[in-house]
Amino acid sequence: MEKHSIGRYIASIYRYQSILINKQFEQYGIGCGQHTILINIALNPGINQKDLSERVKIDRANTHRAIKKLEALGYIHTDRDEDDKQIIRSCLTEKGEKLMPSIKSGLHDITEIMIKNFEDPEREEITNLLQKIEENVQKYVKSLRDDS
Amino acid sequence: MEKHSIGRYIASIYRYQSILINKQFEQYGIGCGQHTILINIALNPGINQKDLSERVKIDRANTHRAIKKLEALGYIHTDRDEDDKQIIRSCLTEKGEKLMPSIKSGLHDITEIMIKNFEDPEREEITNLLQKIEENVQKYVKSLRDDS
DNA sequence: CTAAATTAATTGCTATCGCAACTAATTATA
DNA sequence: TATAATTAGTTGCGATAGCAATTAATTTAG
Fold this sequence. Notes:
Chains A, B: Keywords: DNA-binding, Transcription, Transcription regulation. Chains A, B: Residues 3-135 form the HTH marR-type domain. Chains A, B: This is HTH-type transcriptional regulator SarZ. Chains A, B: InterPro entries: HTH_MarR-typ, WH-like_DNA-bd_sf, WH_DNA-bd_sf. Two copies of one chain form a homodimer. By secondary structure, the first copy, chain A, is mainly alpha-helical. Chain A folds into two domains: 5-114, Arc Repressor Mutant, subunit A, CATH 1.10.10; 119-148. Chain A has six helices and three strands; from the N terminus they run ααβααββαα. The first copy, chain A, has helices at residues 5-25, 35-43, 49-56, 60-72, 94-114, 120-147; strands at 47-48, 76-80, 88-92. In chain A, strands 1-3-2 form a three-stranded antiparallel sheet. The radius of gyration of chain A is 17 Å and the shape is globular. Chains A and B meet through helix 1, helix 5 and helix 6 of A and helix 1, helix 5 and helix 6 of B. The structure holds a DNA duplex (30 and 30 nucleotides).
């Protein structure tokens, strides 16, 4: 096994995954930049952009762009918070609700492609290990930002 | 454990990883788009763009752009093949050779950040599982392309 | 041996992404 | 209470990425 291969695998899997997501959701006008945002709005109705960014671990600017696009497509609607007018909350529209089953099943299919022929303990293990890696990297990047 | 989490972890780790790579190699003018290409030219002197693309699993257009940039930075030089003038072969320059140890150690550091606190069997396991995922996804995307 | 098909490299286009700078609203402080 | 600091959202910018179309060189077929 070559050294440094973990990062290489992550990058190459990410790129293939993006291709599959784009293909899967093309018919709905949704690309790999929007589907995670859409799902997280579905899971947390009324969430604001800052919290969404933290959940999805994506830059605020891109969260904003995804929301703009999803709104233009009619899958979500946004409202300013009455008490704090800085905050903009997003919820699914009816059209968005209707789309969710397709999104979920599409993502399920992609996951199945990725872990095809994995034994049950391996499916468990890969998720655990990836979670740990994410935690490590996130913590480290955060520490870099806190320094500056 | 949530469903669809594998893809989410891959994406978020990829983005953090890109941030770290960009920071690590900023001083050399090299970003996360070029370092893999550079390493693979070092490992396979005289490789052409098509083979590089297949190794790195990146689009030919981007391989081309990375080579252009690395050449402009003086880390590699390119030569047309004498027998087949379609083919352009890339090799490290002396400046490139001198840079390699820093690149390798930088990537080693990033890998260590990612798998901090991993036990030895886990380090083994994560690489195996990621390799299998990459194989699955690559095969699937390839099958899609062959259909059309 | 010429025309068609294939191959490798290249360019234009659009999407995604992080960062830095900015605006507007809110909160803290002097 | 008025000013400063913070917070949430927004915009511009440059880098990375895949796809499709183009060009130039080579190979295959008629």
